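Re: your question from the hallway

Yes, I did run it. Sequences:
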Amino acid sequence: MTEDEIRAAVLAALTSVAPDLEGEEVDPSTPFRDQFDFDSMDLLNFAIALHQSLGVEIPEIDYPKVASLEGSLGYLSEKLQGA
Amino acid sequence: MPSLGSDMEAGTLVEWLVKPGDTVARGDIVAVVETQKGAIEIETFEAGVVDRLVVETGTEVPVGTVIAHIRGEGEPAAPETAAPAAATPKAKKSSKPAEPTAPAAAARARVSPAARRRARELGVDPETLSGTGADGAVTLEDVERAGATPAPAPAPTPAAKSTGDAAAAMRQAIGAAMARSKREIPHYYLATTIDLTRALDWMEAENRRRPVAERLLVGALLIKATALALKEVPELNGFWRDDAFVPATGIHVGTAIALRRGGLIAPAIRDTDARDLGDVMAAFRDLVQRARTGRLRASELSDPTVTVTSLGENGVETVFAVIYPPQVAIVGFGSVVERPWSVDGRIESRRVITASLAADHRASDGHRGALFLRALDRLLQTPETLA
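Structure:
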């Protein structure tokens, strides 16, 4: 899976969690919590959406690693390459 | 127009999902109302055939207003079955073949709130668009594309207020309800610190064995524990009406949910005490999702018999909440924090949470409130019993 495909999947997961963010710019390094007022429910839904679209199961302990766009891309790239 | 909660006294009817002649079952969604807290779906509490739509779309109507007539089974048809001109549903709806037995909500296109907002600004009817989003959902882009074609500007309606106006109106409504609460309800406050370590250890182990989509959040444990503790202190679960406490017949915990654009809403998880923990979590997740996308139902806003609010994720240690009338209690939770704690004569680092109770002194006293907090603590020490 290419980096662009992972990015597209991450952005789609973000929009599925918070449809009201559709069309918003995403700052890659700012945590979703600070940027979009994400809470633990949003992060759980984000993990569920990524699991559904990419098949990557993110353990609860790793949620902080996927809490920003940059973090998600790095984490998922590593997981998908290692798969 | 059913009750939409004590801080919402009116709503603007933005969409009819049925038309005269349609058959409706109890619980079917028949209309969408725009409120300061977003779009709310209105269910019917009667089964029958829609006789007449009384309120025109775009009209702001107070709670309690008759918005439609439904003819019950066996009742004769009203002499005038056609809707008055003012209440005629949109042309697109009326030209569709009747779908008398299908749930009304199924016919409605999925439209994201951003797209719906933009559609209103552009005067585009999102129901007429074919969506390119997930599962055919109408997206912002679909609306922008449709909006590029010149269309007559819609007549201004109360629902077409700017975001700033809507936020100000919401604050005003919440302020009015809370001022009334503080003026009329003699609040008393109690708080206790609860060792949550066992509950969190148990939940983390549970989450390791559960599929991703069924994982639990601590909020679900707190909601379930609150419901079970209320069974032991029922004076906190009910309403203050006509100078008397009216105990609720079920325990429907209202869960305060922060809206992303500001404000909050507290829909109910019905029969919280009777659900297993997985089911409480699923219901909680569903409510949060729908609260933030404008898909709550009116009954979910009028059902709560008590409210739970948590500000822990924002680092708050203790919550001093204001009761949501006509309820008589609200339970608050702060952050989970690590603290030195005495266990069997030893000092250990434990994860603790502060639980607080604001209750109506007309319905209960501090002694009963303290028993509630003690029950809450006890239940959270045996998390497996919450499952």
